[in-house]
Design a protein that fits this description.
The protein has 14 helices and 13 strands. The strands form three sheets. Strands 1-2-3-4-9-10-11-13 form an eight-stranded parallel beta barrel, surrounded by seven helices. It is α/β, with parallel strands linked by helices and about 450 residues long. Helix content is about 40%, strand content about 15%. It binds flavin mononucleotide. Flavin mononucleotide binds near residues 220 and 233.
Length: about 450
Amino acid sequence: MTRQLHLNLFIHSRGHHEASWRHPDASPLALTDVRYYQDLARKAEAAHFDSIFLADQLALAEDVAQSARAWLEPITLLTAVATVTERIGLIGTASTTYTEPFNLARQFASLDHISNGRAAWNIVTSWLALAAANYGGSAPLSHAERYVRGEEFMTVVKALWDSWAEDAVLDDRAGGIYAKADRIRPIAHRGDYYQVNGPLNLPRCPQGRPVLVQAGSSDTGRRFAARHAEAVFTAHMEKATAQAFYKDLKALVEAEGRRPDQALILPGLSPMIASTEAEAQRLARELNELADPEVGRKRLSGRFGGHDFSHLPLDRPLSPEDFPDPSSVEAARSRTEVILGLVRREKPTLRQLLASLAGARGHFTMAGTPEQVADLIEDWFTDGAADGFNTKPPVLPQMLAVFVEEVVPRLQRRGLFRTEYAGKTLRDHYGLATPESAFN
Ligand SMILES: Cc1cc2nc3c(=O)[nH]c(=O)nc-3n(C[C@H](O)[C@H](O)[C@H](O)COP(=O)(O)O)c2cc1C
């Protein structure tokens, strides 16, 4: 079979455009209504998407007055989605900085059992400065230390997931033996950040371990991804940087002794789709006009670790000197580089920059016909930029419906995307090997 494309649905607010929540085509349901997420997951499953994804932040953003955010806790929410779906993978975000490895290993192992092998963890080290204030109040950890701690965290959770052999549970009611004690063992971890005895209090997951996803694109983030990630989310505003990232990350994965096809690269794509290009552009303009530049300015400041942009006029062309040096940013460093790349290339005014970030926060946006969107997907997929896409419909559920009805069948006719699920687990959909048990 020819190489197959992977599609993830990133569910965020009522769509990825900053103003989507107030658009007439957005869902009428509350963002705390579980049916909203269950309906979207079922729609994506009917179209044979590989997975859905929920991001997470551990603090309320300061722009809540003008932008719809309700962070239902992802693992809780994915469990509710698991009960109404059968095949689609369920990717939830959780932080290595603000949780204990034992908690996290249990939660994702539980989700993997409950969903019969569909759980995945988006590993984040949490860049949001406000989060630190909710967890003990000390200053946020530096970018470097977050990754050092994250590395030890990974050692612990992997050992916990491996602490039961596959055949440990006998459940022999007649003989009175539930489990073979010699097939379950403590991990006895003593490290710089964590002391964890183990074993996990739960049998080995259906997938061996949940699928590991990561989205850091800085140098440190890439090395971390190369060691651990089986799927990688990444943000690019042009194909050339996506290709460079793809090449670099696959080489790093190989240098870690892993097969490059065992780490899928899924750049973000937020397409506005209509029957003509002019109509798609009109829809994009209509959404941009609903966006408040002051919300965008606050969000930009958050990206640059709280840097003050309040003095910048909206209508003067920007230059790189208007921004702090990305290497000094302790927050989401790689995204600041994406933004500066755009400033260097296009010299937009602040108003124009905020409009292009409003679409999908630094991911690739386009407005076009279904054919044009399918062409772009095929081009990136076949030209070394992507193994699939993290699709980010600008308005939900409306633009997901258009993508599913108009773009997916075109990808299927071109032989690029499945027409049925071949397997049952997310590892099956992604073509990932099951991790070997430490007991074999
Ligand atoms: C598609 C995508 C989704 C992300 N989701 C989250 C998230 O839910 N929570 C979070 O704290 N960071 C999230 N991030 C940020 C990354 O995990 C990472 O922290 C950020 O890119 C900074 O790391 P870096 O400096 O290594 O690039 C996401 C990034 C991307 C590209």
